[in-house]
Amino acid sequence: MTKRIGLALKASVVVGTSLTSWYAGQYYERCQQLKDEKNNEHRFFNFKRMPGLPIFGTVSAATPVVPTDNQVDMGNKLTPATSRVSQIMKHGFPGFDTIRSFDDYVLSYDRRNKIANWVFEHLTRDNLYSEKKVDRSKCEFKLDESIHPYFRSLNSDYKGSGFDRGHLAAAGNHKLCQSHMEQTFFLSNMAPQVGVGFNRDSWNRLEKHVRKLTKVYTDVYVCTGPLYLPRKEVDGKKYVKYQVIGVNHVAVPTHFYKVIVGQTSDSKFEMEAYVMPNAVIDDSTPLTSFQVPPESVERAAGLLFFDKLSRDKLIKINGKKV
């Protein structure tokens, strides 16, 4: 009998100890969870108030966007880089995937396809002013070290491919200083483009058209990017098919788009949207033949352009009154 009581006491001690340890562990884990949640709220609060950046998603800037004087509430205390990013992205981010900010343009990088999802620029007549000392011949195509090595494109990917390293943010849009133009030569701003008949001809004409718009509007905002559009094959089914080049399998887009918004002196807005096939195009083909409804580009790209711009301020789309 005494032996049974002793065993029972030992068992109760073990169970009690186990329960106490379990409750202590649960209490510790809950405290840690509350601590982490509090820290996350604090980090989110700080991040949320950063101007010119999306609230959600991962942002890794080539030019850091940080408050001056370690201020959380910036007010008017913005670094030049922060101010410029806010200016370029004034009317909204098309998407939030892997954002990179440079001195005079902003891009979202597609790590799988090794080219940008989109590139955003803000042009005015003044910032298109060409300094004589700015020399394109001094610029070299270079890898973007802010991109993880797994996801970079290299110059060797393009070598012997038959494709040009085509600018998305055009070098000719950034002549204000040498460093601005040099930053357009990062490979993260490049995409494989057909050379003769496209990049050096029709696409170049579209880039020049965008620059001419600064003579009409006080501000011009332009978003450029690739598309991978389906095509019907001989079996009657539609497929999305595109080539890749180099050891890093850099994607060759089937098409490219530009969505442009021009702001008038009385704060009205006009929009133009273009989609061009990445192929040889007859140089006599007018640019207007490539105009498309902006929403068709949004659906194809999976992006929303100028979503912070009130649509009732748009007075024209592709030259037609709204």
CATH superfamily of the domain at 120-321: Extracellular Endonuclease, subunit A
**Stretches where pLDDT falls below 50 for ≥5 residues?**
7-11, 36-77
How many β strands by DSSP? 14
- Described by the principal axes of the CA atoms, the overall outline is globular
Largest sheet: 8 strands, mixed
| Head-to-tail CA distance between termini | 97 Å
Provide a quick synopsis of the model.
The protein contains 7 helices and 14 strands. It is an alpha+beta fold and 322 residues long. The chain has a domain of 202 residues: Extracellular Endonuclease, subunit A (Extracellular Endonuclease, Chain A), CATH 3.40.570.
Explain what the structure shows.
The protein has helices at 2-48, 80-88, 155-158, 178-183, 195-199, 202-212, 294-301, and strands spanning 99-101, 106-110, 115-123, 163-167, 190-194, 219-227, 231-232, 238-239, 244-245, 250-251, 255-263, 269-277, 314-317, 320-321. The strands form four sheets. Strands 1-2-3-6-11-12-13-14 form an eight-stranded mixed beta sheet, sandwiched between helices. Strands 4-5 form a two-stranded antiparallel ribbon. The chain has a two-stranded antiparallel sheet with strand order 7-8. The radius of gyration is 27 Å and the shape is globular. It is an alpha+beta fold and 322 residues long. The model is unreliable at 7-11 and 36-77 (pLDDT under 50). The protein starts with a helix and ends with a strand. 28% of the residues lie in helices and 21% in strands. The chain has a domain at 120-321: Extracellular Endonuclease, subunit A (Extracellular Endonuclease, Chain A, 3-Layer(aba) Sandwich), CATH 3.40.570.10. It is built from seven helices and 14 strands.
